[in-house]
Design brief:
41% helix, Rossmann fold, 211 residues, seven-stranded mixed β-sheet, 8 helices, single chain, alpha/beta, binds S-adenosylmethionine
């Protein structure tokens, strides 16, 4: 079965035209990601994350799988001065690119760059974090829940991207898809979190830490 469009293509285009990347460096990063077909969260989801971060006055954010820093840039803008975004990324070249963008944006003091396995690197940080965002290889998704349990404050939000996985959640059963479905089920059955799923772009789960 071919991948499914999560949002009707005309609605998707409307949202893309309507929702802007306000910051010039963010626009540059978005243009690079789109031109390279690099799987960034994009404007629609970036604005949602900015909204969530500002809504809970987030100051400490942990990202698992930062790429070249596009989603981290949205969070860095949201946390404001004195806030911190901990980035983790497996590819050195992506981190170097991210460093350049943050340097030119004048926001280096808001970010920490870490190269290596995100789940290992997260062990260095005790938290508490206001937001933990997971965007690593899908088969590792279930493992990030215990990180959130240990490091996310009550009232904080655990976010996963690609939770509709291009529609494969309704038709496929490979290891990545199974891990996405397993993570969704685990979160929905976990009384420490109140979870919902937003069908924007490729789908994001939002889990509010309630106890
Ligand atoms: C979908 S991209 C991240 C995009 C980024 N969150 C954004 O929206 O701008 C996933 C990134 O995670 C990295 N990655 C995947 N699994 C990882 C892991 N276990 N540890 C560290 N990085 C990982 C990949 O190298 C890739 O750059």
């Amino acid at each position: 079965m071919p991948d499914l469009e999560i949002t009707h293509p005309q609605i998707y285009d409307y949202l893309e035209k309507t929702l802007a990347e306000d910051h010039p460096i963010l626009r540059e990063m978005g243009d690079y990601g789109r031109a390279q077909n690099f799987p960034i969260i994009g404007t629609q989801v970036g604005r949602l994350f900015y909204f969530l971060a500002r809504s809970i006055n987030a100051k400490q954010v942990l990202e698992l799988g930062s790429g070249f820093g596009y989603s981290a840039m949205w969070f860095a803008l949201a946390v404001g001065q004195g806030g911190r975004v901990v980035m983790t990324e497996g590819a050195q070249s992506n981190v170097e690119r991210a460093r350049d963008y943050f340097s030119r944006a004048g926001l280096l003091e808001r970010v920490e760059f870490n190269v290596g396995d995100a789940l290992e690197l997260a062990k260095k940080y005790s938290g508490p974090f206001d937001i933990i965002f997971c965007d690593i290889q899908k088969h590792d998704y279930p493992r990030a829940i215990s990180i959130a349990r240990a490091k996310l404050r009550i009232g904080g939000i655990l976010i996963y991207d690609n939770m509709l996985w291009h529609g494969r959640v309704v038709s496929e059963s490979d290891s990545d898809t199974n891990a996405v479905v397993e993570t969704t089920r685990a979160l929905m059955n976990d009384d420490e979190f109140f979870t919902t799923l937003v069908p924007l772009h490729d789908g994001q789960s939002l889990s509010l830490r309630v106890k």
